[in-house]
Amino acid sequence: MNRTLFFIALTVVLFGIDWYVWQALRFVIRNLSQPTQRWITLAYWGFTSLTLFAYVMMQFLPADFFNRVTRTFIIAGIAIPYFSKLLIVFFLVIDDIRRLLQWIVSYFIPSVAPVAPVNPVNSVERSIPRSQFLETTALVAGTALMGTFVFGILSGAHDYRIRRVKVVLKNLPKAFHGMKIAQLSDIHSGSFFNKTAVKGGVEMLLREKPDIAFFTGDLVNDRAVEVKDYINIFEKIKAPLGVHSTLGNHDYGDYYQWGSQQEKNQNLANLKKAHELLGWNLMLDENRAIRVDNEEIGLIGIQNWGAGNFAKYGNLEKAYQGAEDYPVKILLSHDPSHWRAQVLPKYNDIDLAFAGHTHGMQFGVEVAGIKWSPVQYRYKEWAGLYTENNQHLYVNRGFGYLGYPGRVGILPEITIIELVRG
Protein backbone atom coordinates (compact mmCIF):
# COMPACT_ATOMS: atom_id res chain seq x y z
CA MET A 1 0.00 0.00 0.00
CA ASN A 2 1.53 3.34 -1.03
CA ARG A 3 1.62 6.34 1.24
CA THR A 4 -1.44 8.06 -0.28
CA LEU A 5 -3.65 4.98 0.08
CA PHE A 6 -2.42 4.45 3.64
CA PHE A 7 -3.20 8.09 4.48
CA ILE A 8 -6.74 7.79 3.07
CA ALA A 9 -7.35 4.46 4.82
CA LEU A 10 -6.11 5.73 8.17
CA THR A 11 -8.16 8.93 7.86
CA VAL A 12 -11.29 6.86 7.26
CA VAL A 13 -10.46 4.67 10.27
CA LEU A 14 -9.91 7.68 12.52
CA PHE A 15 -13.18 9.27 11.45
CA GLY A 16 -14.89 5.92 12.01
CA ILE A 17 -13.57 5.87 15.57
CA ASP A 18 -14.82 9.44 16.08
CA TRP A 19 -18.28 8.54 14.79
CA TYR A 20 -18.47 5.34 16.84
CA VAL A 21 -17.58 7.20 20.04
CA TRP A 22 -20.08 9.93 19.15
CA GLN A 23 -22.90 7.37 19.09
CA ALA A 24 -22.12 6.48 22.69
CA LEU A 25 -21.87 10.11 23.75
CA ARG A 26 -25.15 10.93 22.02
CA PHE A 27 -26.84 8.06 23.85
CA VAL A 28 -25.52 9.13 27.26
CA ILE A 29 -26.59 12.80 26.86
CA ARG A 30 -29.97 12.04 25.25
CA ASN A 31 -31.97 13.07 28.34
CA LEU A 32 -30.20 16.41 28.83
CA SER A 33 -31.76 19.67 27.72
CA GLN A 34 -31.52 20.55 24.04
CA PRO A 35 -29.17 23.55 24.59
CA THR A 36 -26.83 21.37 26.67
CA GLN A 37 -26.81 18.67 24.01
CA ARG A 38 -25.97 21.26 21.35
CA TRP A 39 -23.03 22.62 23.35
CA ILE A 40 -21.67 19.11 23.98
CA THR A 41 -22.08 18.29 20.29
CA LEU A 42 -20.22 21.42 19.24
CA ALA A 43 -17.45 20.77 21.76
CA TYR A 44 -16.99 17.16 20.68
CA TRP A 45 -16.97 17.76 16.94
CA GLY A 46 -14.99 20.98 17.27
CA PHE A 47 -12.20 19.21 19.16
CA THR A 48 -12.40 16.20 16.84
CA SER A 49 -12.16 18.40 13.74
CA LEU A 50 -9.11 20.15 15.19
CA THR A 51 -7.45 16.79 15.87
CA LEU A 52 -8.18 15.48 12.37
CA PHE A 53 -6.97 18.74 10.83
CA ALA A 54 -3.70 18.44 12.75
CA TYR A 55 -3.29 14.88 11.49
CA VAL A 56 -3.89 15.90 7.87
CA MET A 57 -1.58 18.91 8.22
CA MET A 58 1.27 16.75 9.52
CA GLN A 59 1.01 14.53 6.46
CA PHE A 60 1.49 17.35 3.97
CA LEU A 61 3.88 19.77 5.67
CA PRO A 62 7.63 19.08 5.41
CA ALA A 63 9.17 17.31 8.40
CA ASP A 64 11.23 20.36 9.36
CA PHE A 65 8.32 22.84 9.16
CA PHE A 66 8.01 22.77 12.96
CA ASN A 67 10.85 22.51 15.44
CA ARG A 68 11.23 19.19 17.25
CA VAL A 69 9.39 20.19 20.43
CA THR A 70 6.42 21.72 18.60
CA ARG A 71 6.17 18.68 16.34
CA THR A 72 6.26 16.38 19.36
CA PHE A 73 3.40 18.23 21.03
CA ILE A 74 1.29 18.22 17.86
CA ILE A 75 1.78 14.47 17.49
CA ALA A 76 0.90 13.99 21.15
CA GLY A 77 -2.19 16.15 20.64
CA ILE A 78 -3.29 13.75 17.91
CA ALA A 79 -2.27 10.47 19.54
CA ILE A 80 -3.61 11.05 23.06
CA PRO A 81 -7.26 11.63 22.03
CA TYR A 82 -7.26 8.60 19.74
CA PHE A 83 -5.64 6.31 22.31
CA SER A 84 -8.36 7.44 24.71
CA LYS A 85 -11.07 6.87 22.12
CA LEU A 86 -9.73 3.39 21.43
CA LEU A 87 -10.30 2.57 25.10
CA ILE A 88 -13.87 3.82 24.70
CA VAL A 89 -14.25 1.67 21.58
CA PHE A 90 -13.11 -1.37 23.59
CA PHE A 91 -16.06 -0.98 25.96
CA LEU A 92 -18.46 -0.18 23.13
CA VAL A 93 -17.48 -3.33 21.27
CA ILE A 94 -18.28 -5.34 24.40
CA ASP A 95 -21.71 -3.71 24.46
CA ASP A 96 -22.28 -4.34 20.76
CA ILE A 97 -21.29 -7.99 21.11
CA ARG A 98 -23.81 -8.25 23.95
CA ARG A 99 -26.48 -6.67 21.76
CA LEU A 100 -25.63 -8.95 18.84
CA LEU A 101 -25.93 -12.04 21.02
CA GLN A 102 -29.25 -10.79 22.38
CA TRP A 103 -30.50 -10.18 18.85
CA ILE A 104 -29.50 -13.69 17.74
CA VAL A 105 -31.25 -15.25 20.73
CA SER A 106 -34.37 -13.10 20.28
CA TYR A 107 -34.48 -13.94 16.55
CA PHE A 108 -34.70 -17.66 17.20
CA ILE A 109 -36.58 -17.42 20.52
CA PRO A 110 -38.89 -14.38 20.26
CA SER A 111 -40.23 -14.88 23.76
CA VAL A 112 -36.93 -13.76 25.27
CA ALA A 113 -36.71 -10.55 23.23
CA PRO A 114 -35.98 -7.53 25.47
CA VAL A 115 -38.58 -4.89 26.15
CA ALA A 116 -38.24 -1.80 23.95
CA PRO A 117 -36.80 1.29 25.66
CA VAL A 118 -39.04 4.25 26.39
CA ASN A 119 -36.96 6.72 24.35
CA PRO A 120 -35.18 4.73 21.64
CA VAL A 121 -32.38 6.48 19.75
CA ASN A 122 -32.77 4.44 16.58
CA SER A 123 -34.67 1.52 15.15
CA VAL A 124 -32.08 -1.09 16.16
CA GLU A 125 -32.29 -0.08 19.80
CA ARG A 126 -36.08 -0.57 19.81
CA SER A 127 -35.40 -4.28 20.12
CA ILE A 128 -31.86 -4.39 21.53
CA PRO A 129 -31.28 -1.42 23.89
CA ARG A 130 -27.82 -0.12 24.65
CA SER A 131 -26.37 -0.52 28.14
CA GLN A 132 -26.34 2.81 29.97
CA PHE A 133 -23.73 1.42 32.32
CA LEU A 134 -21.30 0.29 29.61
CA GLU A 135 -21.73 3.45 27.55
CA THR A 136 -21.09 5.66 30.58
CA THR A 137 -18.19 3.49 31.76
CA ALA A 138 -16.61 3.71 28.32
CA LEU A 139 -16.79 7.49 28.21
CA VAL A 140 -15.54 7.90 31.78
CA ALA A 141 -12.62 5.52 31.16
CA GLY A 142 -11.62 7.27 27.94
CA THR A 143 -11.84 10.72 29.49
CA ALA A 144 -9.85 9.56 32.52
CA LEU A 145 -7.12 8.12 30.27
CA MET A 146 -6.88 11.37 28.32
CA GLY A 147 -6.66 13.34 31.56
CA THR A 148 -3.95 11.01 32.81
CA PHE A 149 -1.84 11.53 29.69
CA VAL A 150 -2.26 15.30 29.90
CA PHE A 151 -1.28 15.23 33.59
CA GLY A 152 1.77 13.17 32.63
CA ILE A 153 2.91 16.01 30.40
CA LEU A 154 2.19 18.82 32.85
CA SER A 155 3.55 17.07 35.93
CA GLY A 156 5.29 13.78 35.18
CA ALA A 157 7.76 14.88 32.50
CA HIS A 158 10.07 16.63 34.96
CA ASP A 159 9.05 15.07 38.28
CA TYR A 160 12.57 13.84 38.96
CA ARG A 161 13.00 11.16 41.59
CA ILE A 162 16.19 10.07 43.32
CA ARG A 163 16.36 6.31 43.72
CA ARG A 164 18.89 5.05 46.25
CA VAL A 165 20.21 1.51 46.02
CA LYS A 166 22.95 -0.39 47.86
CA VAL A 167 24.84 -3.03 45.91
CA VAL A 168 26.99 -5.60 47.69
CA LEU A 169 30.13 -6.68 45.80
CA LYS A 170 32.13 -9.51 47.32
CA ASN A 171 35.56 -8.47 45.99
CA LEU A 172 35.18 -4.74 46.44
CA PRO A 173 38.45 -3.16 47.69
CA LYS A 174 38.21 -1.53 51.10
CA ALA A 175 38.86 1.96 49.71
CA PHE A 176 35.70 1.71 47.61
CA HIS A 177 33.36 0.67 50.42
CA GLY A 178 30.60 3.29 50.61
CA MET A 179 31.48 4.85 47.27
CA LYS A 180 28.53 6.79 45.90
CA ILE A 181 27.74 6.49 42.18
CA ALA A 182 25.31 8.81 40.39
CA GLN A 183 23.75 7.55 37.16
CA LEU A 184 21.84 9.43 34.49
CA SER A 185 20.58 7.89 31.28
CA ASP A 186 18.47 8.79 28.25
CA ILE A 187 18.58 12.57 28.49
CA HIS A 188 17.09 13.01 24.98
CA SER A 189 17.83 16.73 25.00
CA GLY A 190 15.93 17.26 21.74
CA SER A 191 12.64 16.59 23.54
CA PHE A 192 12.97 19.04 26.43
CA PHE A 193 10.46 21.88 26.69
CA ASN A 194 11.22 23.20 30.20
CA LYS A 195 14.84 24.25 30.63
CA THR A 196 14.29 25.46 34.19
CA ALA A 197 12.96 22.06 35.26
CA VAL A 198 15.91 20.28 33.62
CA LYS A 199 18.30 22.54 35.50
CA GLY A 200 16.48 21.65 38.71
CA GLY A 201 17.01 17.95 38.04
CA VAL A 202 20.75 18.45 37.60
CA GLU A 203 20.87 20.43 40.85
CA MET A 204 19.17 17.51 42.63
CA LEU A 205 21.98 15.25 41.46
CA LEU A 206 24.68 17.69 42.53
CA ARG A 207 23.24 17.91 46.04
CA GLU A 208 23.95 14.18 46.40
CA LYS A 209 27.71 14.87 46.06
CA PRO A 210 28.54 11.62 44.25
CA ASP A 211 32.08 10.24 44.15
CA ILE A 212 31.71 9.29 40.49
CA ALA A 213 29.01 9.77 37.86
CA PHE A 214 27.91 7.68 34.87
CA PHE A 215 25.83 8.55 31.83
CA THR A 216 24.59 5.52 29.90
CA GLY A 217 23.62 6.91 26.52
CA ASP A 218 21.04 8.74 24.40
CA LEU A 219 22.17 12.31 24.93
CA VAL A 220 20.04 13.36 21.93
CA ASN A 221 17.14 12.03 19.88
CA ASP A 222 18.97 12.09 16.54
CA ARG A 223 21.11 15.18 15.97
CA ALA A 224 24.05 16.51 17.96
CA VAL A 225 22.74 20.07 17.64
CA GLU A 226 19.88 19.19 20.01
CA VAL A 227 22.18 19.31 23.05
CA LYS A 228 23.63 22.72 22.21
CA ASP A 229 21.25 24.69 24.45
CA TYR A 230 21.85 22.31 27.38
CA ILE A 231 25.64 22.15 27.44
CA ASN A 232 25.76 24.87 30.09
CA ILE A 233 23.40 22.84 32.30
CA PHE A 234 24.84 19.34 32.05
CA GLU A 235 28.47 20.51 32.15
CA LYS A 236 27.84 21.32 35.81
CA ILE A 237 27.73 17.61 36.62
CA LYS A 238 31.06 16.94 38.30
CA ALA A 239 32.47 14.24 40.57
CA PRO A 240 35.90 13.67 42.18
CA LEU A 241 36.42 10.45 40.20
CA GLY A 242 35.03 11.91 36.99
CA VAL A 243 31.93 11.66 34.84
CA HIS A 244 32.07 8.70 32.46
CA SER A 245 29.71 8.19 29.55
CA THR A 246 28.83 5.97 26.64
CA LEU A 247 26.56 6.11 23.57
CA GLY A 248 22.98 4.94 23.12
CA ASN A 249 21.12 3.84 20.01
CA HIS A 250 19.74 7.34 19.32
CA ASP A 251 23.16 8.98 19.45
CA TYR A 252 24.23 7.55 16.08
CA GLY A 253 21.53 9.36 14.11
CA ASP A 254 20.16 6.11 12.69
CA TYR A 255 16.55 7.31 12.89
CA TYR A 256 17.08 10.54 10.96
CA GLN A 257 17.04 10.95 7.19
CA TRP A 258 20.46 12.41 6.39
CA GLY A 259 21.42 13.98 3.07
CA SER A 260 24.54 11.82 2.88
CA GLN A 261 26.63 9.34 4.84
CA GLN A 262 29.22 12.07 5.31
CA GLU A 263 26.62 14.28 6.98
CA LYS A 264 25.67 11.44 9.32
CA ASN A 265 29.32 10.75 10.18
CA GLN A 266 29.87 14.43 10.95
CA ASN A 267 26.86 14.38 13.26
CA LEU A 268 28.37 11.53 15.27
CA ALA A 269 31.70 13.38 15.43
CA ASN A 270 29.84 16.46 16.72
CA LEU A 271 28.09 14.35 19.34
CA LYS A 272 31.39 12.97 20.60
CA LYS A 273 32.65 16.56 20.75
CA ALA A 274 29.60 17.45 22.87
CA HIS A 275 30.67 14.84 25.47
CA GLU A 276 34.08 16.51 25.48
CA LEU A 277 32.53 19.96 25.96
CA LEU A 278 30.51 18.58 28.86
CA GLY A 279 33.70 17.32 30.46
CA TRP A 280 32.51 13.71 30.25
CA ASN A 281 34.92 10.85 29.57
CA LEU A 282 33.25 9.08 26.64
CA MET A 283 34.08 5.37 26.59
CA LEU A 284 34.02 3.65 23.21
CA ASP A 285 34.79 -0.05 23.62
CA GLU A 286 37.52 0.51 26.19
CA ASN A 287 38.30 0.21 29.88
CA ARG A 288 40.09 2.30 32.46
CA ALA A 289 41.13 2.05 36.08
CA ILE A 290 39.33 3.95 38.82
CA ARG A 291 41.81 4.49 41.66
CA VAL A 292 41.24 5.37 45.32
CA ASP A 293 44.00 5.18 47.96
CA ASN A 294 46.27 2.96 45.86
CA GLU A 295 43.45 0.51 45.19
CA GLU A 296 41.57 0.23 41.93
CA ILE A 297 38.58 -1.23 40.16
CA GLY A 298 37.91 -1.47 36.43
CA LEU A 299 35.39 0.55 34.45
CA ILE A 300 34.38 -0.83 31.04
CA GLY A 301 32.36 1.18 28.53
CA ILE A 302 31.03 -0.01 25.20
CA GLN A 303 29.09 1.54 22.36
CA ASN A 304 25.45 0.59 21.92
CA TRP A 305 24.72 -3.11 21.64
CA GLY A 306 21.11 -4.28 21.71
CA ALA A 307 19.55 -7.69 21.26
CA GLY A 308 17.01 -8.15 18.48
CA ASN A 309 16.86 -5.47 15.81
CA PHE A 310 18.71 -2.73 17.70
CA ALA A 311 22.10 -1.54 16.51
CA LYS A 312 25.14 -3.53 17.56
CA TYR A 313 28.00 -1.05 17.46
CA GLY A 314 29.66 -2.18 20.67
CA ASN A 315 32.48 -4.69 20.98
CA LEU A 316 32.65 -6.08 24.51
CA GLU A 317 35.56 -8.38 23.72
CA LYS A 318 37.64 -5.39 22.68
CA ALA A 319 36.48 -3.30 25.64
CA TYR A 320 37.29 -6.09 28.10
CA GLN A 321 40.88 -6.64 26.95
CA GLY A 322 43.27 -5.57 29.70
CA ALA A 323 40.58 -5.54 32.39
CA GLU A 324 41.03 -9.16 33.47
CA ASP A 325 42.92 -8.44 36.71
CA TYR A 326 40.68 -5.81 38.24
CA PRO A 327 39.10 -7.21 41.45
CA VAL A 328 35.79 -5.57 40.52
CA LYS A 329 34.58 -4.70 37.04
CA ILE A 330 31.78 -2.23 36.26
CA LEU A 331 30.23 -2.04 32.80
CA LEU A 332 28.46 0.86 31.10
CA SER A 333 26.21 -0.44 28.31
CA HIS A 334 23.13 1.45 27.16
CA ASP A 335 20.77 -1.42 26.31
CA PRO A 336 19.88 -3.80 29.19
CA SER A 337 19.31 -6.70 26.77
CA HIS A 338 23.10 -6.76 26.34
CA TRP A 339 23.51 -8.03 29.90
CA ARG A 340 21.60 -11.26 29.31
CA ALA A 341 22.76 -11.73 25.72
CA GLN A 342 26.53 -11.34 26.20
CA VAL A 343 27.56 -10.47 29.75
CA LEU A 344 25.98 -13.32 31.72
CA PRO A 345 26.98 -16.09 29.28
CA LYS A 346 30.57 -14.98 28.64
CA TYR A 347 31.79 -12.58 31.34
CA ASN A 348 30.94 -13.90 34.78
CA ASP A 349 33.46 -11.54 36.40
CA ILE A 350 31.67 -8.34 35.38
CA ASP A 351 30.21 -7.57 38.77
CA LEU A 352 27.92 -4.64 38.04
CA ALA A 353 26.45 -3.23 34.84
CA PHE A 354 24.61 0.05 34.29
CA ALA A 355 22.04 0.51 31.52
CA GLY A 356 19.03 2.61 30.51
CA HIS A 357 17.22 2.60 27.16
CA THR A 358 13.74 1.36 28.17
CA HIS A 359 12.47 4.58 29.89
CA GLY A 360 10.09 2.18 31.66
CA MET A 361 8.09 3.05 28.52
CA GLN A 362 7.24 6.31 30.39
CA PHE A 363 4.01 4.60 31.40
CA GLY A 364 3.22 2.12 34.12
CA VAL A 365 2.61 1.55 37.81
CA GLU A 366 5.09 1.58 40.67
CA VAL A 367 3.22 1.71 43.94
CA ALA A 368 2.95 -0.41 47.10
CA GLY A 369 5.32 -3.04 45.76
CA ILE A 370 3.50 -3.30 42.42
CA LYS A 371 5.78 -2.72 39.43
CA TRP A 372 4.34 -2.96 35.94
CA SER A 373 4.85 -1.43 32.52
CA PRO A 374 4.05 -2.67 29.00
CA VAL A 375 7.79 -2.56 28.29
CA GLN A 376 8.30 -5.63 30.49
CA TYR A 377 6.86 -7.76 27.68
CA ARG A 378 9.81 -6.69 25.53
CA TYR A 379 12.59 -6.48 28.13
CA LYS A 380 13.08 -8.90 31.01
CA GLU A 381 15.21 -6.30 32.79
CA TRP A 382 13.58 -2.90 32.35
CA ALA A 383 13.82 -0.81 35.55
CA GLY A 384 15.72 -1.11 38.82
CA LEU A 385 18.23 -3.63 40.17
CA TYR A 386 18.54 -7.21 38.90
CA THR A 387 20.85 -9.88 40.31
CA GLU A 388 21.85 -13.25 38.91
CA ASN A 389 24.70 -15.42 40.22
CA ASN A 390 26.34 -12.52 42.08
CA GLN A 391 26.25 -10.34 38.96
CA HIS A 392 24.16 -7.19 39.07
CA LEU A 393 22.46 -4.96 36.52
CA TYR A 394 20.89 -1.60 37.25
CA VAL A 395 18.47 -0.21 34.64
CA ASN A 396 17.84 3.52 34.96
CA ARG A 397 14.32 4.70 34.04
CA GLY A 398 15.72 7.66 32.12
CA PHE A 399 16.09 11.37 32.78
CA GLY A 400 14.26 12.58 29.67
CA TYR A 401 11.49 11.39 27.38
CA LEU A 402 10.95 10.52 23.76
CA GLY A 403 7.80 10.57 21.61
CA TYR A 404 5.21 11.18 24.33
CA PRO A 405 6.44 14.37 26.10
CA GLY A 406 5.52 13.17 29.55
CA ARG A 407 5.52 10.31 32.03
CA VAL A 408 2.73 8.46 33.78
CA GLY A 409 3.66 6.32 36.77
CA ILE A 410 7.26 5.72 35.65
CA LEU A 411 8.93 8.97 36.63
CA PRO A 412 12.30 10.39 35.49
CA GLU A 413 15.16 9.05 37.54
CA ILE A 414 18.44 10.06 39.12
CA THR A 415 20.09 6.95 40.49
CA ILE A 416 22.38 6.97 43.52
CA ILE A 417 24.09 3.63 44.08
CA GLU A 418 26.26 2.92 47.10
CA LEU A 419 28.84 0.17 46.78
CA VAL A 420 29.20 -2.09 49.83
CA ARG A 421 31.80 -4.75 50.56
CA GLY A 422 30.34 -8.25 50.77
Automatic annotation (TrEMBL):
Transmembrane segments: 6-29, 41-61, 73-93, 100-118, 138-157
A GO biological-process term: lipid A biosynthetic process
Cross-referenced InterPro entries: Calcineurin-like_PHP, Metallo-depent_PP-like, Metallophosphoesterase_sf
One MF annotation (Gene Ontology) recorded for this entry: metal ion binding
Any Pfam family matching the protein: Metallophos
Domain Calcineurin-like phosphoesterase: 179-360
Keyword set, alphabetical order: Hydrolase, Membrane, Metal-binding, Transmembrane, Transmembrane helix
Highest rank taxon of the organism: Bacteria
GO CC list: membrane
Record PANTHER family: PHOSPHODIESTERASE YAEI, TRANSMEMBRANE PROTEIN WITH METALLOPHOSPHOESTERASE DOMAIN-RELATED
Protein name in the entry: Metallophosphoesterase
